[in-house]
Design brief:
4 domains; alpha/beta; 46% helix; 27 helices; 6-stranded mixed sheet; Beta-Lactamase; 8-stranded mixed beta barrel; Rossmann fold; 20% strand; Alpha-Beta Plaits
């Protein structure tokens, strides 16, 4: 340090000759706003430090004071810069421990430390060591002065320029960092799939953006597709709001904060208060509000960045909200808000790989006669009932099990077997359900499969539980069925039989008709023949009709099968007519499934016309059980058949437990009494009287009565005494193929 500089530093009056308004040399230091500017003084001369400190006392730049940091070597200065951020200006002596120590420090600041913000002012007492212009450019040096030039006024002028340059660089870098944070956060938010993750990351990025901890909360409106009351609730919180997590905002926030939130929602905008920021992020269907409490007011840059971030968050929230809605409809039942079949299967498949302390099971729960409730009370009542059933099941099963709605009135439950207890679930349904003014007593039917008794994935478990519930369904029970290996074997056999039947129908392979006469025993002549379907599979086994016909009905194959029977029988009927049996009637069995098929009547009428057959000679046999079904759907078809001239025969009378009014409105032409009553006639006593009563009832329902199942001469004689001459059975005539029947008819004369 030169003599002149030392004298100037020791003489404040001399330093202040040209200070103007930059210094307040007398009086106490005023209260200054903002953090001080940190200035690093690096020089190996103690006197320079004292002179500089004296010259800059009570100085301020742009309303902020100066805070001096002292380093007495280049190494010490480097360590300070490496450990302390926010140094605005470094005043560096060129010559210290080495002739170029100052220049080496500059290189270390820029290259090693990567500090591009701090402004560097070089000064030296030896002008010969001044750096070249290229060095000043290369290392971004703000100024270079000899110590003799740095009078008090020039020193401040140099610092003001350097500090303002530093502030501008910091502002630009802060803006760049903020923009990068906003861009990174926006990119990250667009990858999120849940509002929970969205809320958590949102507050984390606000903290990064402001560079300081914040107390905040994210308030979301309940999704209308999910359960929960309308209004905002706290989805995520930090700091002092942490205990309010998951609560409705109206219950846990103070009145002042609620008013600010309400204003933000009403205006659909951001509100910036001195120590609080409220950002509205909602969309057209759902509101979201972010509250951030601050320890100091926002700068203009911070406010601008938050406004930009809020705009990005608004789009991000709309995206996340849409994804959540799509996920909800993909994996939940919209009516009950339970898991749907897809989610149920996925979660079970994942759980199968875990170890469980207690045995696990899967249950299917069916509401008995739900379709009747739905039809009689309407779909609105049916939906309300399903919602109520879902709530009771969820309460009964608790959080340990997974509950799902699998189909219209089928629910699935997966969890510990002790939770899937039948009595426990039934107890929850003892009280009636009140639906739109109706008290409904609901009963359940269940099918359960144990995981330790079944191999396979979730789909296999569901299939086995379905077999279990169908086992009690077919029995008409309201009990609980447990899966067994035999059920799986029966199901495989059923599937195999269906495939074989499908092939038989498609290729007309193994199907044939036999004909059993209906005989007037008094005259000995046949009045009709009944066409009976037979099937021999590819292995040469005769499959009983009682086994394959129900399968054909349940799958709809009965329509094709019935049409084939009708065409085949009519072809044979034409042959018999040509042989002289013009008054012989033909009887064909018809399934209720066929009667519910569109255009069934038209097809029959078209076949009769093409064959030029008298329709009164064609009898269609329908089972008595049809009177117990939805007759309103079938009755129009029956009436159209009668109008077309065909005769209707009620088959197996007496086994369907139908009442006389149910039967009479069918208006059939003939009745076939079930074979069981023939055996009762032979037993005498009460059983005979009951059988005779049924015979009288059958006569009231039709014009002609036919008795089935006559197997002995004694039965035939008893029926003749009861004035029932029309009979069908093995004793009268067995079912025969067409060629044998022709011989039999000839023998009867």
């Amino acid at each position: 340090m030169g003599q002149t500089e030392i004298q100037n530093a020791a003489n404040p009056a001399g330093f202040g000759q040209d200070t103007g308004e930059l210094f307040l040399l007398d009086g106490e230091l005023p209260v200054l706003q903002g953090e001080p500017w940190h200035i690093l003084i690096t020089d190996d001369d103690e006197e320079v430090h004292r002179a500089t400190e004296f010259a800059l006392r009570k100085a301020e730049v742009d309303g902020r004071p100066l805070a001096l940091i002292h380093a007495y070597s280049a190494r010490q200065a480097r360590d300070i810069l490496a450990s302390q951020r926010g140094i605005a200006v470094a005043m560096v002596d060129v010559v210290m421990e080495t002739p170029d120590a100052g220049l080496q420090l500059v290189e270390a600041i820029r290259k090693e430390l990567g500090n591009t913000s701090v402004r560097i002012v070089l000064r030296t007492g030896q002008p010969g060591y001044a750096p070249e212009l290229e060095v000043i450019r290369r290392y971004d040096i703000n100024d270079y002065r000899t110590k003799s030039e740095l009078t008090q006024n020039r020193l401040l002028t140099t610092l003001i320029a350097a500090i303002r340059a530093y502030a501008q660089i910091e502002a630009v870098q802060a803006a760049n960092r903020g923009m990068e944070t906003v861009a990174r956060a926006s990119h990250e938010i667009f990858k999120l799939r849940s509002t929970r993750d969205f809320s958590r990351i949102l507050l984390t990025r606000v903290k990064e953006l402001l560079g300081r901890p914040v107390d905040g909360l994210v308030c979301l409106q309940h999704d209308p597709n999910t359960e929960g009351e309308a209004g905002l609730y706290v989805e995520h919180a930090t700091g002092c709001y942490l205990q309010k997590l998951g609560s409705p905002v109206g219950q846990v926030l103070d009145v002042e904060l609620l008013r600010v939130i309400q204003r933000s929602v009403a205006a659909r905008t951001c509100l910036f208060e001195p120590l609080r920021t409220v950002m509205w992020l909602g969309n057209c269907g759902r509101d979201a509000v972010v509250v951030v409490d601050l320890d100091q007011s926002l700068s203009e840059l911070e406010r601008s960045l938050l406004e930009m971030y809020a705009a990005s968050l608004g789009v991000g929230f709309e995206n996340v909200d849409l994804i959540e809605r799509l996920d909800f409809f993909a994996y939940h039942d919209p009516l009950t808000h339970l898991a749907n079949r897809t989610r149920f299967i996925n979660e079970i498949d994942q759980d199968l790989f875990k170890e469980h302390a207690a045995p696990q099971g899967l249950a299917i729960i069916d509401i008995v006669r739900f379709s009747e409730i739905n039809d009689s009370l309407g779909h609105r009542s049916g939906d309300s009932l399903l919602i109520a059933v879902a709530k009771r099941l969820r309460t009964a099963l608790g959080p340990e099990s997974l509950l799902a709605r699998l189909s219209a009135d089928w629910f699935g439950a997966y969890g510990p077997l002790e939770v899937l207890d039948v009595q426990r679930i039934r107890a929850a349904f003892e009280a009636p359900f009140f639906v739109h003014g109706h008290a409904l007593a609901i009963r359940l039917r269940m099918g359960i499969v144990r995981l330790d008794q079944c191999k396979g994935n979730a789909v296999e478990l569901l299939r086995n539980a379905s077999l279990a519930i169908r086992s009690v369904h077919d029995a008409g029970s309201e009990a609980c069925g447990y899966f067994s290996a035999d059920m799986s074997e029966d199901a495989r056999t059923r599937v195999s039989l269906l495939h074989a039947l499908r092939a038989a129908i498609d290729f007309k392979r193994g199907l044939s008709l036999v004909y059993q006469p209906v005989v007037n025993v008094q005259s000995g002549r046949a009045v009709a023949v009944e066409a009976l379907l037979r099937w021999r599979n590819d292995q040469g086994m005769d499959i009983p009709p009682a086994r394959f016909v129900p399968l054909a009905e349940s799958t709809g194959m009965i329509n094709e099968l019935g049409l084939w029977v009708l065409e085949k029988a009519l072809d044979q009927f034409i042959v018999w007519r040509a042989q002289g049996y013009s008054q012989l009637a033909l009887s064909i069995n018809v399934s209720p499934v066929q009667l519910r098929t569109p255009r069934f009547v038209e097809r029959i009428v078209a076949l009769i016309r093409s064959a030029e057959i008298n329709p009164s000679l064609l009898c269609l046999e329908i089972p008595e059980a049809i009177s117990l079904e939805n007759v309103e759907e079938i009755l129009p078809q029956l009436l159209r058949l009668r109008v077309a001239g065909l005769r209707l025969v009620l088959d197996d009378f007496g086994v369907g437990h139908a009442s006389l009014p149910q039967l009479t409105h069918l208006a059939v032409d003939e009745v076939k009494l079930a074979a069981a009553y023939v055996r009762q006639l032979m037993r005498g006593g009460d059983e005979q009287r009951i059988a005779l009563s049924v015979v009288d009832l059958a006569r009231q329902c039709s014009q002609r009565l036919i008795i089935k199942g006559v197997e002995t001469a004694e039965q035939m004689q008893c029926l003749l005494e009861a004035d029932c001459p029309l009979m069908q059975g093995f004793h009268v005539a067995r079912p025969m193929p067409p060629d044998q029947l022709a011989v039999w008819l000839t023998s009867q004369g």
